[in-house]
Specification:
- The protein is of the alpha/beta class.
- The protein is built from twelve helices and 15 strands.
- Strands 3, 4, 5, 6, 7, 8, 13, 14 and 15 form a nine-stranded mixed sheet that branches.
- α1 packs across α3 and α4 runs parallel beside α11.
- The relative contact order is 0.17.
- Bound molecules: zinc ion.
- The site of zinc ion has 5 residues, from loops.
Length: 413
Amino acid sequence: MPLQPERTITELEELRELTGDEHGAQRVAWTDTWERARDWFRAKLQGTGATEEIDAAGNQWFTLRGDSDRALLIGGHLDSVPNGGWLDGCLNVVAGAEVLRRIAAGGQPPVTVRLVNWADEEGARFGRSLFGSSAAAGSMRDQDELASLDDRDGIALPDALRAHGVELDRALDARTQLEGAAAYLELHIEQGPVLESLGLPLGVVLGTFGVERSRITWRGQAAHAGSTPMDKRRDALAGASKLALSIRDIARAVGEGAVCTSGGLVTKPGIVTSVVETAEQLLDQRHLDATSLARMLQLAKDDAHRFAAEENLEVEWERIWSIEPILFDETLIRFADEAVREVSGTSHQLPSGPLHDAAEVSRAGIPTVMLFVQSLRGLSHTKLEDTKREHLELSVQALDNLASKTLTWLASN
Ligand SMILES: [Zn+2]
């Protein structure tokens, strides 16, 4: 049975019908709608010979035994944000199902092929993303914190998980799933505007950005808006404002996809009749290269100290979160490039701004690569999320070509 990329679109439409409403996709993890999506997915894989298993973290696995226990993994996530799009996460697994069916129809593959539907990639209900993949990768270290999380209705995370057969304390047992894993492939919509602006349907993802998140506190002096001359002011907002603009120059100067965002600013006393005494500013900086990321942070700090001197302020930096860049596997990037060129003529390599389950698998030391397919208007996490049908079909074909190349590679080494 040959690959039928158009079937992936039909199935995605079916899933949208089953688990969405007029506001978009409603497959939030650990809900009945999500469970319905998993049941639907199980039915789609019936007859392929793949066996199903739900692991200790709630990840849904379909395993097609091969001549060897070494495994090629293809993954994605059926869960969505509330009012989400019809493609984010589920294109990956539904396309993966089509590839698995094509492989199964050819007889026993040389290595085992496993399709995984990761549990709770989005973290939409409890604010913790990449739940299932971080458990399987063994990088989950925040169980105590997770145990204390409640959703908006006051339901505790451990109770919500238990209702779907998952014990938080045992989630890390999912680590055994990655034993024997030799390669991991993930197709995803880009969720950004780059491929569309280049007029390309598909791209190869080099890795996921490293992230530095800082809280910057500026301290000046509250003073009367009427009686304080302009040259006598110690205005904390002036420092924050200068930095909010200078990070744009920093990102431009460092380049190579660098992004800097000052996404939050709280001023005190925050009244119309006072100069700002303190300004608490949030900064998010991302780059695919660790050295460049460190340089961006240093440049921002240097600027901040200069602005503090200019405005007669004190400034303090605090790191609130950081993660190293994660680079995907060079051999698989090469295969992905070939696969994309075969189906669409031109390949383009780009980093991923958002984190994905693939980043967790890569951190666990398993050779990993991702394919991106163009997103229209760069929109995602909204019902407006969309991709041209012909591009979706090309993406299924590219994933299949990539899977074939990877299987041949794994079988020969
Ligand atoms: Zn996703």
